[in-house]
Amino acid sequence: MIELHELVKHFGDVRAVDGISLTVPRGEFFCVLGPNAAGKTTTIKMLVGLIKPTSGSARVAGFDVQTQPLEARSRLSFVPDFPFLYDKLTPWEFIRFTGQLFRMSDADIRRGADELIPRFSLQEWLHKPIEGLSHGTRQRVAITAALLHSPEVFVIDEPMVGLDPHHARIVKDVLKERALQGMTVFMSTHQIYVADEMADRVGIFHRGRIVAAGTPEELRRRAGTDGALEKAFLAITEEEVRTDSANGAVP
Question: Which CATH number covers residue 38?
Answer without folding.
Answer: 3.40.50.300
